[in-house]
Structure formats: C-alpha cells, structure tokens
C-alpha cells in the first residue's frame, strides 16, 4: 500500500548543471540549476528553469544564449557554491578559481575545467509560475578529449556527472552500468503470448 | 583544449521515467521516456517530451493527465521493454506482469511495483519540433513506505532510480553520496577576498 506524500517535487534523478552567461557588463557568471533536461530531439533542445530573481535570468533574456556546463564530481564543492552565492554580489568564477572561455558560437562563456559544455541559443522563453523555462537550441557541445570513447562520444563514467536529490537536497555520483538500452528489454518482450 | 562534437543531445544525467496513461478504451498504457524533468517549483511541475507518433502522446492529449513512475534498478529490463514496444500493438503492462493502479486524483494509472509514482494533471502542451512537451502539475506523489526516511521523504538510495545515458544509450544506477547541497559549497565561498 503506497503512502501519499503530497503535491511536492520529489522525482529522481535531477541534474546538477552549471549555467554560464554574460551579465550586462559582459562579465561571465555561473549558477547551478537542477530544474533542467532535454525537451526536444529535432531541433536538439535542452532547457533550464530559473526564478526571475536570479542574476542569470536577466542575463539570458538580454543575450538570448547560455551554456550548460556539466561538472564532474571532483567539482561538487564549486557546483554547490555556484548555487549558494549570487553573481549580483560576487564574481563567482574568480572566487572559485575556475576559467571562463568565450563560446565561439553563442554569446555566453563556458567553464573550461568541466568536461562537457553545451552551447545553447534561446529558442523559447516560457513562463510557468515561479520559474521561467529557457529552451535552448544546442548549437555545439565541447568535450574534454579524455572523456571521449572510440566512437567519439562522451562516456558517462568518464564525465562522472553529479546527480541532485530533491527533497533531501544531497548530491550523488553515478553508479554502475545496468545494461544497454533498446536491448535488455527484449527479454521481457519474449514473455508475450 | 576542448573538442567540438557537434549539435547533438549529449547531456548527463537524464532520467528513466515510465509514463502511465489510459488509452481511448480506458486500457492502461506505459512508455519509457528520458526527455523529462522538473520545470517549475510553484506550481510544482514536471514534464515529459514525447514524439507525436507515440501512443502515449494521444492518450495524454485526450485525458489531460499522466503519471511518472520511477522504476528502481531492479526493474531495468521492464523499463527498457516499455521503451521498445508500443501500446498500439501490445498490452505492455500485462506482458510485463506489472500492476496498474488507478490514481484517485488524476485520470491515469500508476505502476504499483515502482517505488515512486507522481500523479500529474496537464497544465501546458508545448510544441517544440519533433517532440511535444507536456507540462504536468504534480497533484500528489505516492511512495512505497520502505523508501521513506524519518522525515517522511523518499531517499534516493532506497528508490535506486535508473539514469539514462544519451549517446551511448546505456542505463546506470546511483552512486555514492557526495555531500549536502547548499552546504558543502560554503568552503569555496570562504576563498572570497
């Protein structure tokens, strides 16, 4: 018998993504967001949902661009810091010692030390309530060569992304491989009468 | 020096969620989706993005409701099967042997064996290209009592959700705890001049 725990945001997993933008003065800023994901395949789109009060919200509206930077678990302290401090008050990247690199394709900086950087141009701005959803068209992905496999694709086990746990508000790493998608389910299919 | 890998969907982590709906005849259907996430806090909203060709797409449009069912890694085979087969052709839940339970609050069924079930009413239907984004207002969350901690909150380590890896198309489990959010980053903050 299930137990009702109410109308609240308890879903797993959610990501730990660092959103890169330029502010009004052209200074690079970063903030951490867990309300993000993939929302379309063609065009390839990701989004982040942000509160209007965040510095990044205004930055994206003005520049119509952002990057999603995927920290490896080695940078979990920095990622958390980017979710605590505000770019209105402190230059978070300088404080952290991490390096902003200007994207050549979109009007936003990416974080050099993080193994994956997704460069996005804003396609849609959708007001949902407390949060604005910024849907970004993925223009390019920059990867550290050390995370790429023989097919030229990043391996999640080399990227070591961080998972956020809503509710208890903790960070987790990636566990072990459970199998190949669009493949292991064929066993269940064979039960079919 | 980063390597450009092009305009493609390579972001980590993405979820492995099983979407529950009723079809035209009132038969329960499930499909697996990785394009999903949280998109607003007030009202609490999650979304799934689906191709128009899926059976679930029409089901959600008609009933304006869906559930997100979070399988534990024990059910990774069933979750993969729900992403391979189509409800247009086979009654996937009967084939899998899993149990649909009618939600009391929304017009959709949930999967009893999965530890977390999120019951959603459709708030927005947003066309993004190949995919339609269905934004659902979380009306309630049903949890298996065994995954709840002393605060009444589900623990990700007890739910054992499945992570999907776009690109290489593999499933992964959850790894170890990396720290408390909005807390461990304070160390980086103290570097501030």
Strand numbers in spatial order across the main sheet of chain A: 4-3-7-10-11-6-5
Query: What's the mean pLDDT score of chain A?
Result: 96
Succession of helices and strands of chain A? EEEEEEHEHHEEEEHEEH
Helix content of chain A: 10-25%
Structural class assignment of chain A: alpha+beta
Low-confidence stretches of chain A: none
Number of helices of chain A: 5
User: What is the number of strand segments of chain A?
Assistant: 13
* Oligomeric state of the chains in view: homodimer
* Share in β-strands of chain A: 35-45%
Give the end-to-end Cα distance of chain A, rounded to a whole number of Å. Answer: 30 Å
Shape of chain A: globular
Largest protein-protein interface: A-B, 114 and 114 residues
